Amino acid sequence: MNTNIKEILVIGLGLIGSSIAKASKEKGIKVHGFDIDDKSLQYASDNKIIDNSFNSLVTINNKEITSYVDLIVIAVSPEATKDIINNIQQLWNTQTTITDTSSVKNHLLYKDVTNIVLSHPIAGSDKSGISSGDENLFTGKKTVICNPFNADKKHTQRLEDFWKFVLQMRVSEMSVKDHDLMFAMTSHLPHLISYALIDSIRLSSKDVKDNVGGGLKEFIRLSGSNPEMWRDIFELNDKNIIKSLASFQLSINNLLELITKTKELPEVFSHSDLLKKELEDIKSYKEDSF
Amino acid sequence: MNTNIKEILVIGLGLIGSSIAKASKEKGIKVHGFDIDDKSLQYASDNKIIDNSFNSLVTINNKEITSYVDLIVIAVSPEATKDIINNIQQLWNTQTTITDTSSVKNHLLYKDVTNIVLSHPIAGSDKSGISSGDENLFTGKKTVICNPFNADKKHTQRLEDFWKFVLQMRVSEMSVKDHDLMFAMTSHLPHLISYALIDSIRLSSKDVKDNVGGGLKEFIRLSGSNPEMWRDIFELNDKNIIKSLASFQLSINNLLELITKTKELPEVFSHSDLLKKELEDIKSYKEDSF
Predict the structure, then answer these.
(1) Domain shared by A219 and A128, yes or no
(2) What is the spatial distance between Cα B195 and Cα B201, in angstroms, rounded to a whole number?
(3) B193, CA 20 to 30 Å: which among A28, A231, B165, B202?
(4) Which residue in B79, B266, B126 sits closest to A228, CA to CA?
(5) Same structural domain, A15 and A159
(6) Which residues span the domain enclosing A224?
C-alpha cells in the first residue's frame, strides 16, 4: 500500500507524538521531530524515535520544508495546538498536510486554509511522556477526522491513509459540533466526575487508604491523567460538558428517587445492561486521555 | 498452620461462595454447600467444588450439623443474607461460627447471639455465577470483620484465622457504622454514579456506540454488575450514600466554578494526584462488586 507519505514531522513528543513517530518509522517513513522540551527532543534523537530534529518553531515555519515533509502531526494539549498552528502560518495552504490530536476542536477556527484537517486518534494511557511511547498504542483503535475548513481532497485522503495504513486505525468523519458533544458525554464528563469524586473523598478526611472497596480504582486512574490537558479540555468544551452534566444530574435524581421510594431498581439497571451490550466494542479500546 | 477448621458450609454458590469453597478445598477443608438454585448446587457437586450438598435451609437449621461444621459462610445478596440468618436460628449460640459476605451491614441486627461475626471480603469481578468461581479470587486481598454482637473470642479468632490462613487475606476490624460509611464513599457511590452516567447517555439518544472516547469504559464495566445485589446495597445504605453524594455534588460545583471562571484547575487536580499516591495499593485489588 503506497500512502504517498514519505516524511512526516511530529510536533510534541509526549506519549501520543512519540507513539505516532515510532509507528511511522516502523512503516519506513522518515520522521522529523520537535518538542519545546529540550530533554524530550534529545531523548527522541538518542533513542532513534525520530530521524531528524528541528530546534524551534521558527525553523519549522519555513516554506522550504513543504518540499519534503508530507504531513505535520501536532500532538500537544488543546490550547498549545492552537498556538502552534498560529505559529506555522507560512505552511498554511501549502502541499504539506497539517493535522492535530486534540480531544476538543471548537477552538480551532481558521478561514481559507485548505491544508488543515483535524484528527482525534482515540487511545491513550494513564502514563504520559516520551518514555511511554508505544508503536502499538493506536493499532486497531479509531480516529475521528473533522474537516471544518473544507480542506482539499488531496489532504483529507492523505490523512485518512495515514491513520488507516500507517497507524492501522479505523477512521470516521464527524462535524466539530458533533465531536465535541459526543466526547463531552463519553470522555470529558466521566473525567470531571472522577476528579470530583476523588476530591470529595479527600475532603471527607476519612483515611480510606487501607479500606477501599471496589469501584474506586477506575476513578483514581482517570483522575490521574495529565492535569494541564484536562484544564484545557474542560475550559474549551465547558458548554457541552455542562449540558452533559445536567443530564447526568437528572439521572442521579431519578436513581435517588428509586432508591428511597421503590424496589424497582433492577429494571432501571437493565437499561445500563442494554447499553453495555451496545458498547461491547468499546472494551477493546485502550482507555483514555486523548 | 492448624486453624481448627475442618469442615465448612457455604450457603450461596455464586462467584463469591464458589471461590471460597474452592480455596477451602484446596487447603484440605471438607466443604458442604447449599444454593437455592438447584442447577448451581448440581454444578457444584458435579465439579467437586463441594464435597457434600444440603438440599434445603430446613435441613441446615438443625443443631446436629453443629457437631461437625465449624464455620458457615453465607455468600448471597445483602437482603437474602438477613433472611438466611433468620432461617437458621437453631444454629445461633452454638459452637459453629456463622459469617456472611455482604457489602452492607447495618440491616444485620441481632441480640444476644454469640456466634455471628460479620465479614466483607473485598474482591470480586464483573463476572458472576458459580462458573466464574476462582480459588485465587481473594488471595492477597482484604477482609473487613465487624463484630457488632460481641461474639465470643473463639468465634472471632476462628473467623480471622479462616480469612488469613485459608483464604490468605489481610484482615482488619471496623464498626458497622464505619464500614457502611466507608464503603458508601469508596464503592457504593462510584457504582451509583456509573449507573447514572450510563443512563444519561442512553437517554440522550446519541448513538455513541462507535464514537466513544476514553473514560467511559470503567463506568460501563461498573454499571454491568449484578443488579439485584446493587438494589439491596443502595436501599440498605441509602443514608450514607446520600451523604457521600452531597459531598460529591459540592466537589462538582467547585470544579464547575473553576472551569467557568479561572485557570486554576491544575492545582485542584493535583489534590487528586496526592490521593492517587496515597491509594497506590488499591490498584492491586481486583475490582469490585463485593
Answers:
(1) no
(2) 10
(3) A231
(4) B266
(5) yes
(6) 178-284
Q: Mean pLDDT, to the nearest integer, of A250-277?
A: 66
Q: Considering only CB atoms, which chain A residues are within 8 Å of B144?
A: 211
C-alpha cell at A153: 481532497
Q: Let me know whether B165 and B206 are in one domain.
A: no
Q: Please tell me whether the overall predicted TM-score, pTM, comes out greater than 0.90 for this model.
A: no
Say if residue B146 is in the same domain as residue B235.
no
CB contact under 8 A, B219 and A215: no
Residues 5-64 of A with CB under 8 A from B: none
Query: What digits encode the pLDDT tens for the residues A130-174?
Result: 998 999 999 998 999 999 999 999 999 999 999 999 999 999 999
* Measured distance CA(A288)–CA(B20) in Å, rounded: 35
Per-residue pLDDT band for A289 (boundaries 50, 70, 90) equals very low
Domain count, chain B: 2
Q: Are B173 and B146 in contact (CB under 8 A)?
A: yes
Please name which of B238, B244, B242, B286 lies closest in space to residue B78, comparing C-alpha atoms: B238
What would the grid cell of residue A260 be? 428511597
Q: B152 with B254, same domain?
A: no
Task: Find the closest chain B residue to A256 by CA distance.
Answer: B242
Q: Do B122 and A235 touch (CB under 8 A)?
A: no
Domain-located, residue A148: yes
| Cα of A131 to nearest chain B Cα, Å | 20
